[in-house]
Amino acid sequence: MLVGQQPREFLLAVEALTVSFDGFKAVNDLSFYVDENEIRVIIGPNGAGKTTVLDLICGKTRATSGSIQFRGKELTRMKENEIVKTGVGRKFQNPSIYDDLTVFENLEISYPRGRSVFGALTFTRDAAVRDRVHEVAEMIFLQDRLNMSADLLSHGQKQWLEIGMLLIQDPDLLMLDEPVAGMSVSERAKTAELLNRIIKNRSVLVIEHDMKFVEDIAHKVTVLHQGQILSEGTMDKVKNDPKVIEVYLGH
Amino acid sequence: MTDNRFFNRSELIGILVLAVFLVVVLPLTLDVFRLNLVAKYLTYAFVALGLVICWGYGGILSLGQGVFFGLGGYCMAMFLKLEASSVENTKIQSTPGIPDFMDWNQITSLPLLWQPFHSLTFTILAIILVPGIFALIIGTAMFKRRVGGTYFAIITQAVAAILTILIVGQQGYTGGINGMTDLRTLKGWDIRPDHAKIVLYFFEVGLLLACIMIAQFVRHSKLGRILVAMREKEDRVRFSGYSVANFKIFAFCIAAVFAAIGGAMFALNVGFMSPSFVGIVPSIEMVIYTAVGGRLSILGAVYGTLLVNFAKTSLSESFPELWLFGLGGLFITVVLAFPNGLAGIWGDYVQPRIDRLISSRKPKPEGWTDNSVADGAPAE
Questions:
Q1: What ipTM was predicted for this assembly?
Q2: pLDDT at residue B373 greater than cutoff 80
C-alpha cells in the first residue's frame, strides 16, 4: 500500500453504533476505526459489550442505529454470508468446529469456493484445495492430524483449528474472540507466534483478557466499559490511564 | 481406488448386496402376493431415504413427509383415475367420462385442476414438481426466518393435518376419505394382473437404486459435509460464508421429491391412493422406519423400512390392536438403546468381526486405515 494515499481510508469504520436489547444499550454510540494491517485489541470488564461489537460487525446481531463501513461497504444491512464474502472472518469464543468431520474436512468447508448449493454439489477436492489445506494445517500445528476426527483434538488444538478455518478464507479483517482462553502456557506462546505470523496483509480485531498476551500482540488497544469507549491508544497509554486502572486493570 | 463421487468400496459392496437381495433373492423366494407387499413397503423406503438426507444429515426433522408422499401419489392416481374413467367405462353414470366419485358428488364436468392429468408427461412432471415446489415454499418460509428444530417439526405436522382435512373435505375433487380407488391401466397397460405387478416391482427397484445413487452423490459431495456441519454448528457454517437456509431448503426439497416418487409408485403398485397415507400417523411411521434403519445410513433406510413393515404385517395379521403399541415400543427401544439403528448395530458389532475375519486371512494392504476413521475421511 502506498503511504500518503488519500483520502485516508480505514479498513473498518464503526460510527455511532448503538444496539439496544429491550432498552438496555449493550453498545452505546460507539465509534472506532481500524487501519489496514492493524492489530487492535478490545479489552474491558465483563458485560462491557466486547463480544456484542464483534456480533454487530459480522451480522450476528443487528444494530439499532449507527453504521459499520468495511472498505466503504455498509455492513449493517448485509446478510451474514455476504459479510463473509466482503472479507470479514470471525472466530467464536468457544471453539466452534465440526466434531463429526475430520480436521481436513473442517478446513475444506471454509475454503472460499463452492459456497452456493449448486457449487457445493459440484465442488471437487482438487490440488489447489489440498495444497491450501495442507499449508494452513501446517501453520496451525495440525499437519499430522488431518485425517483425525476433530472431536478428538484437545481444547487448544480446537482453537487453532478454528483459527485455521478462518485463515483458509483469507479474510481482510480477522476477528478473534478470546483466542487463548483456556489454553496452557505453552499453547499460549504458540498461539501468539501463530497470530504474529498470520497478521501479515490483514487486520485483526481481538478480544482478550490475558494482559501479557495483549501486550505481545496489540498495536492499539480499545477499552470498552458499559458499551462505550473508556480509553483508546497504545498499550502504554491505556495502562496508565487512571480511568482504565479504576474500572478494569485495578481489579 | 474405487472411491469416487458416489461411493467408496464398502458402500459399493453394500449397494450391490442390496441390489442382489431386491432383484434376485426376493423375486425368487416370494410369491407374487408377497412380492407386491414388498413393492408397497419399498414405496416407503423412498421416503425414508429422503429423511436420511433431510433429518439424518441435515438435522431437519420433518414429521410431515406423508404430505409429499401423498402429493406424488395423488398426482399419479389422478392420471390413472382419468384413464379408468373413460366414457365407455362410466356410461352408467349421470355424467359419463368423469371419475365415479365426482359423479356421486353431483359434479357434472371435469374440474380445471384435473384437465392436465390426461397427459402422462404432465403427470410425471407434476409428481416431481408439485411436491418439490411445495417443499420449496414451506422451506423458504421457515428456514429464511430461522424456524427450525421442534417448531419446524410441529409445523410439518400441522401441514400434514391440514392436507388430510382438505382431501377429506373436498370429496368431489379428491375422492374424500375413500381416496381414489379402482385404478386400472397405465396408457392402456393393465396394472392389476400378476405379471404387471412383477414388472412394476422391478421398475420400482430400479428407481429406488437410482435414488440411492443420488443420495450417495449428495452425501459424498461437499454439500453432504456441509449438512453435517450445519447440524452441529449452524452459526459456524453461516459465518463461513454459506447461506444456511438455502442448504436446508435443498435438503428438504430433495426429501420431498423422493417421498413423492415413493407415493407415485404406491399408487401404481397398490392400485389406490387415500388420505390415510398423508396424515400425521403415517408421517410419523415413516420417521420410525428411518430411525430403525439408522438415520445416518442410506441403505439402513431401506432395510429399516422393510423390517418394520414386515413386522407390522405379521403382527397386525395376528394381533391387530397391539400393533401400534409394538411400533411405539420399537421406536422407544431404538432411540434409547440403538440411536443409530440397524446401521449402528451393524457398524458397531457385525462389521468389526467381518473386518477381523478378513484381515486375519490376508495381510493389511498398504495405506490401510482404521475403518471408523476412514469412513468419510478425505480420499487421499
A1: 0.89
A2: no
Best residue of B222, B231, B246, B249 to probe chain A, by most A CBs closer than 10 Å: B222
Check B377 against A99: CB less than 8 A apart.
no
Q: Is the pLDDT of residue B200 over 90?
A: yes
B47/chain A closest Cα distance in angstroms:
21
Site of grid cell 449493550: A26
Cell of B32: 407374487
Residue located via cell numbers 481444547 = A155
Test B225 with A60 for CB contact under 8 angstroms. Answer: no
For the A12-249 domain, the top CATH level (class) is alpha beta
Mean pLDDT of B162-179: 93
Buried b (16+ CB within 10 A) or exposed e, A117-147: beebbebebeeebbebbeebbebbbbeebbb
What pLDDT does residue A210 have?
85
**Bridge-partner residues for A174, per DSSP?**
A89, A204
Contact state of B225 with A112 under an 8 Å Cβ cutoff: no
Q: Determine whether the interchain pair B238/A81 forms a contact, defined as Cβ–Cβ distance below 8 Å.
A: yes
* Nearest-neighbour CA in chain A from B314: distance (Å): 38
> Shortest CA distance to A42 belongs to which of A159, A214, A181, A188?
A214
* pLDDT of B365 above 80: no
List the domain boundaries for chain B: 9-374
The shortest C-alpha distance from A248 to chain B (Å) reads: 31
Does the pLDDT value for residue B376 go beyond 60? no
C-alpha cell at A83: 459479510
